[in-house]
Amino acid sequence: MGSGVALFTLSLLLVTHHAHSAIGVNWGTMSFHKLKPSTVVDLLKANKITKVKLFDSNPDALRALMGTGIQVMISIPNELLSTFSSDLFVQQNLSRFMGKGGADIRYVAVGNEPFLTSYGGAYQNYVFPAMVNLQQSLVKANLASYVKLVVPCNADAYESNVPSQGTFRPELTQIMTQLVSFLSSIGSPFVVNIYPFLSLYQNSDFPQDFAFFEGSSHPVLDGPNVYYNAFDGNFDTLVSALAKIGYGQMPIVIGEIGWPTDGAVGANLTAARVFNQGLINHLLSNKGTPLRPGSPPEDVYLFGLLDEGAKSTLPGNFERHWGIFSFDGQAKYRLNLGLGNRGLKNAENVQYLPSRWCVAHPAKDMTLVTDHLRLACSQADCTTLNDGGSCSQLGEKDNISYAFNSYYQLQMQNEKSCDFDGLGMVTFLDPSVGECRFLVGVTDKSSSAELMARWGIYHICIGLVVWALTRCYIL
User: Fold this and answer.
1) Of 79, 113, 171, 450, which residue is the catalytic one?
2) Which of 10, 24, 285, 354 sits between 20 and 30 A of 191, alpha carbons compared?
3) Same structural domain, 55 and 110
4) String of DSSP letters for 323-334
5) Which UniProt keywords apply (predicted)?
6) Domain of residue 28, residue span
7) Pairing relationship of beta strands 225-227 and 357-360 according to DSSP bridges
8) Which of 9, 228, 234, 224 is nearest to 105 (CA)?
9) pLDDT score at 173
10) CB distance 75 to 56 below 8 Å
11) In a 10 Å sphere around its CB, with 0-12 CB exposed, 13-18 middle and 19+ buried, how is residue 144 labelled?
């Protein structure tokens, strides 16, 4: 998505009649409520996920993955491409975690969408030198035959009105030719991120049904080929661009693709399920695309595994809602990944904070609440309250309660964080309304911390009882 955040990518092995194709899921870690790495790894194993990609080289994640047999892709964030030491990187992030019983690291991603148009070329000149240095370091460490380098690119790296005329952007032609030649020489695939949702979101004239896999009343005609979905058209545009620089048979991996469930019109549970299931079924059919019939991408990584409430909303509020699981590892919708399970398995043994919420005090005047709302939503995630969000239809007081609670959970239910100059109060009754879920945070604290939390609950309960008796107000 063009961000330098820590992201994981998971991959599920899908067996077809002709080839092994893998469905992947990006696991992002930009969350206010992070699950333990061990909990996430258990989630991967429960769903038979066999590959994971980390957009940095988080040591806690790598330790949790050791001995699991899950294949790993680690990455170097864009902002480090110009400064990192390749020898030191290999030593600290590969060699020390690999070996018998270690992490099965297969790929290193050199940046993430470093040629994105919005970056204005800021990272463009650092990618190739970084790759050359890394390859030399892998050779010295005797890892070059096992660990491969890749560069995840955004689909804006190429352009065309029809797939057969696809070319790389003029300013990228030289560096792409150099890059692809190098990737080919070391046996690495071309990795690209494709987002039909963004095409629909950014263009009001984009045919909605063309974004999905159910067939379209607005197909794209390209000579003898007909395209009924945006994915195939985008993929073949890249195939054409690669062919024009002499690498028409280059293996292609889809690094990111998915559909958000909230934060924008068209971002909802139904659309996400239909898109992702349609994509999986399309891949399982082994149909391929018009320019690569019978040859689907080697791997396709769904974006993403978990919602990330701390991501930047600059592209849109939907950025925090791409997960097929909510932040706490609970499946949002039914999805058959083609692995024998008819649906997703939820994370187990998640350590939640106590079941309590912060809401707007029902007996208080909210006239002066504006500054408190601004504070709460500047730090916590309130994106579901905006137009198109699952909580956008709440009444005024429920809106306030949602913002208060988001901040309260972010502050790990600190008692003072629900004060808001007396406008907030703690409740033990779940204030969720319909599809609008008022979250309870998660924690990775020890059992002693849990005892302290329970002791805090006891005091809150006593306080509520006294308050109710003295004020004669029924909660």
Assistant:
1) 113
2) 285
3) yes
4) -SB-TTS-BSS-
5) Cell membrane, Disulfide bond, Glycoprotein, Glycosidase, GPI-anchor, Hydrolase, Lipoprotein, Membrane, Plant defense, Signal
6) 7-320
7) unpaired
8) 9
9) 97
10) yes
11) middle
Same domain, 205 and 160: yes
Of 270, 295, 320, the last residue of a domain is: 320
**C-beta neighbour count of 466 within 10 angstroms:** 10
Domain-located, residue 348: no
Q: What is the DSSP letter of 217?
A: S
Q: DSSP character for 440?
A: -
Q: Which of 79, 159, 171, 256 is catalytic?
A: 256
Domain annotation covers residue 349 = no
Residue-wise DSSP of 105-136: EEEEEESSSTT-GGGTTTTTTTHHHHHHHHHH
Regarding whether 361 and 246 lie in a shared domain, the answer is: no
Cα-to-chain-centroid distance, residue 195: 12
The CATH number that applies at residue 13 is 3.20.20.80
Residues 407, 287 within the same domain: no
CA triplet 247, 248, 254: central angle to 5 degrees? Answer: 95
Tell me whether residue 308 is one of the annotated catalytic residues.
no
Q: Report pTM.
A: 0.89
Total number of domains constituting the chain: 2
| Predicted local confidence at residue 140, as pLDDT | 98
Q: Are 313 and 377 contained in the same domain?
A: no
Q: Is 435 a catalytic residue?
A: no
Residue 340 maps to a domain: no
Per-10-residue mean pLDDT, the chain, length 475: 46 41 83 94 91 87 94 93 96 96 95 97 97 98 97 97 98 97 98 97 94 95 97 98 98 95 95 96 94 93 92 95 96 88 92 97 96 97 94 95 98 97 97 95 62 44 39 38
The answer as to whether 171 is a domain residue is yes
Where do we find the tokens 């297969």? 106
The answer to whether the beta carbons of residues 313 and 262 sit under 8 Å apart is no
Which one, of 117, 45, 113, 33, lies nearest residue 380 by Cα? 33
Token pair recorded at residue 145? 């035959």
Q: Which amino acid is at 441?
A: G
